[in-house]
Amino acid sequence: MSAAPNPGTPERPGGPEPSAEGPLVVLVGPPGAGKSTVGALLAERLGVALRDTDTDIAERAARSVADIFVEHGEEHFRELEAAAVEDAVREHRGVLALGGGAVLRESTRRLLTGLPVVFLDVVLADAVRRVGLDAARPLLAVNPRQQWRTLMEHRRPLYTEVARVVVTTDGRTPEQVADAVLDALEPTRA
Ligand SMILES: Nc1ncnc2c1ncn2[C@@H]1O[C@H](COP(=O)(O)OP(=O)(O)OP(=O)(O)O)[C@@H](O)[C@H]1O
Ligand SMILES: O=C(O)C1=C[C@@H](O)[C@@H](O)[C@H](O)C1
Ligand SMILES: [Mg+2]
């Protein structure tokens, strides 16, 4: 099984909520999991728009995510990110891809409770192959393998905590991952 209901998902009283409010799908996971790529495919399949909080932040700040990190530091970026996620969850009814570190904020994790959140999981080798030495990912700019491993040790429990389902992306094309996401969410839809 490559996709499984997440036993760690907090139960809402009365079970999962129908998605009349809030995004249809929220994608979380580490850099290289494919949130932006798979998010675009899911949006196409569902006939809805894709919103990506990294894009929202860059547009609002009129500079790239990497430049925000360099000019103002990670903490400032996390503030902008928390606000961007809050706005997107409130306003967006399509597919929502979050930045890799959005789950670090406790307030953001709380906001995601009860939403159809999918953790796109990936092993180190595939993630590093996908993101390489990409300068657009400031946290992976130096020693990406070690950085990614350390990030994931810290974040895996957080991704798991917020996720309704976990979908493995290793050895799958983005199209196959999109299929797996839809299959995994189907039984959880009210
Ligand atoms: N299942 C997959 N198989 C092979 N390559 C993939 C897969 N998913 C994504 N990729 C490739 O990996 C790279 C990273 O994907 P993407 O930007 O979607 O990741 P992300 O999760 O949004 O990362 P970030 O957290 O940095 O925004 C892209 O070049 C994309 O084409
Ligand atoms: O994993 C992370 O902390 C990040 C992932 C990207 O989506 C961007 O939000 C930024 O590069 C930070
Ligand atoms: Mg992305």
Automatic annotation (TrEMBL):
Q: Which reaction does it catalyse?
A: shikimate + ATP = 3-phosphoshikimate + ADP + H(+)
Signal peptide start and end residues: none
Q: How is the cofactor bound?
A: Binds 1 Mg(2+) ion per subunit.
Binding, ATP: 32-37, 137, 172
What subcellular locations does the record give? Answer: Cytoplasm
Molecular function via GO = ATP binding; magnesium ion binding; shikimate kinase activity
The entry's substrate-binding residues are 54, 78, 100, 155
Q: Which GO terms describe its cellular component?
A: cytosol
According to the record, the residues making up region (Disordered) are 1-24
Enzyme class at the top of the EC tree: transferase
EC number(s) reported in the record: 2.7.1.71
Q: Which residues bind Mg(2+) per the record?
A: 36
Query: Quick one: where is this thing mainly located?
Result: cytoplasm
Q: Its quaternary structure?
A: Monomer.
Purpose of the protein? Catalyzes the specific phosphorylation of the 3-hydroxyl group of shikimic acid using ATP as a cosubstrate.
Q: What is this protein called?
A: Shikimate kinase
